[in-house]
Automatic annotation (TrEMBL):
Annotated source species: Hydrogenobacter hydrogenophilus
Co-factor remark: Binds 2 Mg(2+) ions per subunit.
NCBIfam families registered for this protein in UniProt: PRK01259.1 (NF002320), ribP_PPkin (TIGR01251)
SMART domains, per database record: Pribosyltran_N
UniProt protein name: Ribose-phosphate pyrophosphokinase
Assembly and interaction partners: Homohexamer.
Matching CDD domains: PRTases_typeI
InterPro entries in the cross-refs: PRib_PP_synth_CS, Pribosyltran_N, PRTase-like, PRTase_dom, Rib-P_diPkinase, Rib-P_diPkinase_bac
Length: 309
């Protein structure tokens, strides 16, 4: 089987970078719209018996990009592809992974069922919001971590006065891993979230006075959490605050909040395109090499477990 790489419209720039790392072209495919808005998919190359990877981030407009992915998967299944792997750098609906209130859906599970039914035989994702989502799938799931990519950017910018901060109790393990790699201390912010997209910062555990703080999170959505955390850290004596995150969702007032906040820089990856996000504080590092290496190992039947650490 040969590697075939396809991409929808969500993140073609990342797909081109991955293709360059692999030394292969992106396969010819049309993903457009009919006049009534329905999605048109047509693959213009033979996929029979091939090892096919579809790269599609499920970012805004989320539902359109999900539908593109499902239709591409269905087309490949009907084209007798040998193996079909969905490469989803950003997995949508990941925060809706349980019933936290009566009469609400478990959206992350529903999306898993849709992707599997459409024809995916394997899934590659980057930094799932909840690693337990892997259990929603009955196919192999490779959850890659962008920590090493972010570390490469940060390692020459830290010193003994640096502290890594988790913006909530759920992110302590992520912060601990980065702190261990950087060889610096850790602090934790406790918060309570009264409703979606509203974060209330409560208190800080750890010492940040006179130190450079690095907040790490898996995603930045409306930026309410990181801006509130930054204000708290500054009030506790931090000399500067940087933010690192894998997924730059950056919805609603996020850019305005970051631009007017005391955050010195925001380091994110390109799992979601940021070309239309005007922010001088934004620094983007690429996960193309990480994704390309996982594709290469999957194709060649090698272990990908070392990429999880």
């Amino acid at each position: 089987m040969n590697i075939k790489l396809l991409t929808g419209n969500s993140n073609p720039k990342l797909a081109r970078e991955v293709a360059e790392h692999l030394g292969i072209p992106i396969s010819d495919m049309i993903v457009s719209r009919f006049s009534d808005g329905e999605i048109r998919v047509q693959i213009n190359e033979s996929m029979r018996g091939e090892d096919v990877f579809i790269l599609q981030s499920l970012c805004s407009p989320v539902n359109e990009h999900i539908m593109e992915l499902l239709l591409i998967l269905d087309a490949l299944k009907r084209a007798s592809a040998g193996r079909i792997t969905a490469v989803v750098p950003y997995y949508a609906y990941a925060r809706q992974d349980r019933k936290d209130k009566p009469r609400v859906p478990i959206s992350a599970r529903l999306l898993a069922d849709l992707i599997t039914t459409a024809g995916a035989q394997r899934l590659v994702v980057v930094d799932l919001h909840s690693p337990q989502i892997q259990g929603f799938f009955n196919i192999p799931v490779d959850n890659l971590y962008a920590l090493n990519v972010l570390y490469e950017y940060l390692r020459d910018k830290v010193n003994e006065n640096t502290v890594v901060v988790s913006p909530d109790a759920g992110g302590v393990e992520r912060a601990r891993r980065l702190a261990n790699k950087l060889g610096c201390g850790i602090a934790i912010i406790y918060k309570r979230r009264p409703e979606p997209n509203v974060a209330e910062v409560l208190d800080l555990i750890g010492d940040v006075e006179g130190k450079k703080a690095i907040i790490i999170d898996d995603m930045i959505d409306t930026a309410g959490t990181v801006v509130s955390a930054t204000n708290l850290l500054i009030s506790k004596g931090a000399v500067s605050v940087s933010v690192v995150a894998t997924h730059p969702v950056l919805s609603g007032p996020a850019i305005e909040r970051i631009n007017t906040s005391p955050i010195s820089e925001v380091v994110v990856t390109n799992t979601i395109p940021t070309d239309n996000k005007p922010c001088d504080k934004l620094r983007v590092v690429s996960v193309a090499g990480l994704i390309a290496e996982s594709i290469k190992r999957i194709h060649e039947g090698e272990s990908v477990s070392s990429l999880f650490t």
